[in-house]
Description:
The protein has 160 residues and is of the alpha+beta class. It has one domain: hypothetical protein tt1634, CATH 3.40.1520. Helices cover 50% and strands 23% of the residues. The chain is built from six helices and five strands, in the order βαββαααβαβα. The chain has a five-stranded antiparallel beta sheet, sandwiched between helices. Helix 1 runs antiparallel to helix 5 and helix 5 packs across helix 6.
Amino acid sequence: MSELITVGFKGEYxxxxxxxxxxxxxxxxxxxxxxxxxxxxxxxxxxxIKQSNLLVMTDAVxxxxxxxxxxxxxxxVGGVIGAGVGKTVKIxxxxxxxxxFVKSVADILEPESSxxxxxxxxxxxxxxxxxxxxYHGKLLRSxxxxxxxxxxxxxxxxxx
Length: 160
């Protein structure tokens, strides 16, 4: 089961920095994400939304690995096929983060702030919570159960 967690930050680029740190955690096997989206409200009030397409990148890499058996052309063809299949499966399974949901949350962001929307497998690790705390994140929305959400809010506030 996966959970959707949305955390807001002061600063237009804070959510981008958090995503980079979270991707490093994923490389270290300290986190596992299905999808991530960044929303930014600029100083002038305009909103920018960035899709990460984590699954598509993963499928492209896997396709390329299998394409190694076909030589240089196999790597290219395998990557393209892997990305295409990954995107198709993602669309069919609807595992991405809803654009309407992202836009509705982005509308409430203050100017010069950003938010990260992540879909995590099972639960959120302490390492991920530490990254949110490092950037003074505030929980905006989640699909966590009430107890888990309360624990996350307290952890972000620095309460035990």
